[in-house]
Amino acid sequence: MTRPLEGRLALITGASRGIGWAVARAYAAAGADLILLARTTGALEELDDAIQADGGKPSTLVPLDLTDGDGIDRLGAAIFDRWGKLDILVSNAGVLGTISPLGHIKLKDWDSLMAVNVTANFRLIRSLDVLLRASDAGRAIFVTSGAADKGDAYWGGYGTSKAALNAMVRAYAAETETTNLRVNLLSPGPVATQMRAKAFPGEDRNTLPQPADIAPLFVELACKEETRHGQIVRYSRS
Prior knowledge:
With 238 residues, the chain is α/β, with parallel strands linked by helices. Helix content is 46%, strand content 14%. The two termini are 24 Å apart.
């Protein structure tokens, strides 16, 4: 079996379900050493049990709310102390927010949406950049959405947060152009996740790609041989 991520250290946020769960399983199968981050310890333990049941190595579990910026800083320091580098960052965690007219979104809901989808990603970059640069082939993958470009009615909150993410990650890619680090955005499109079900409750989930269908693209972008940089990589079923 090919193990293209053998010996590589990967941090995955939002790992407890959906795309993050599937990416963790795929990375483990590809040989990576995993740092799995989510808010709930129980879900992380279930994921680690599943990985080990498949023959994978035990993971490092980090129960952390990404709105805890100081906690992200402590995580960066802990990774530095233990490993001195980080090979792969998959910044997958995100929230949908309120699907409603912009003028109806409550301030606390807007602030929460931006805290998770934008500010937390800034804090990850701020804390982990030095670790990713210390790798011989650092890879940073940020999960975005087509909503960033569409400007659809009632999607102003979520779309704005993802548009801001895109701008920030592209700037980060420009700043790391001459390094060994490769930074990209990944747009998975419609996927059968809990977030998708919340946004489109009447949709037939059986018609959508499953999270496991998307995971190989994350493996591809994490490989040492990957040369794409500063791009929005879109999943296609074809």
